[in-house]
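Session log. Operator J.P. requested a structure for one protein chain; no other inputs attached. Running the standard single-chain path with C-alpha cell output.
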Amino acid sequence: MYEFASGVINVLEKKIFDALDQERMIKAPDKKSAFEVLFDTDMGDVATQEKNIERIIEIDLTDFKKTLSDILKKDNTLFMLLFLRYDALNFKAVLKKTTESFSYGLVPFEQLEQKVNGQRVEINPLVEKMINSIQVTTEMDSKTIETIVDKAYFEVKLDTAKQFGGFLLDITKMEIDVANVKALLKSTDNPVFIEGGNLVKQELEKLIHLQEGEILQDLKKFFEVFGLSLLIEKYSGEDNQVALENALNGFISEKIFEKSRETSAGRAKILAFFQKKMNSYANIRLIMFSKENSIPSAEIEPILLPI
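Structure written below.
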C-alpha cells in the first residue's frame, strides 16, 4: 500500500537537510555562512528568495504538507494523524485567546475558532472529535487548557491509531508515556496523567528511582522505562529543563528511526521522514539563534534533536 509513498520519499531524502548539513551549519563561522548551508538542501530554492528563517520554514512546511497529502491519498487517516498536532496547538490558542496560530493543521484557524465558539461549521472529523471531548468554560487558566487539550489530543490520536495497530499504535503509546513523564516532572502537586500509554501512574512514579539491574516482568517495558529513567537522571536538574524536553522528544524520534531502518518501507518510513523534517526545523532555528547570539556550539549540540 505504501510502495509509492516510500518511493517518493527515497527520492526526496537525497536532498533533505541531514546530519551532514547540520554539522556544516554548526561549524560555520558566522550566521551568514550557516544560512548558506541551506542552499544545498531541499530548502535551497526558498532560501535563495527569502532570508527570514521562520518564513523559510513556513513555506517549506506548507510544501511538505502538500507533498504528504498527495502521496498519502490512499491513507488519508495517516496523513491526518501526522498533522493533528497543529490543530491541538491552534485549539489551545483559541481557548487562551491568543493570536499565535499555525496554518499547517487539518482545519483553518478561523474555522476551528468558529467551531469552538459554538458555530455550525463542518470541519475535519478528528479535529471535531477533539473539540467535542472538552467542556469549555470561562474559568480555565492556561495550565488547565494545556492539560485538557493534550488529553483530548492524545485520546483522539490513540483511538485512531488503534485502527492501524502495530508500530503506529506502539509509537502513540510511547508518546503518551513521554507526555506523562513531562507532566510528572513539571507538576508540584498531583499531575494529570493521560490514559492509554504503556505505563500506569505507579510505574511513572518509579522512573526516578529505577536502578540498573532491576528486572520487571515485562522485559520490553523495562527497557523503555529504563531508557526514560536514564534521561531523567541526566537532565532533571532545574538548569536542564530544555535539554530534558528535547531528550524526551528525541527518545520518540530514535524509536521511529530505528524501526524505519529495520523495515525501509511502509508507515515507519513515512513517520521517520516526517519526524526528520520536524526535527530539522527545530534544530535549524536553534543553530541560527546560536549564531546570531554568539552562543558556543558546545552549549547547543546536547539539545539538538536527532535527524
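Operator note: The mean pLDDT is 89.
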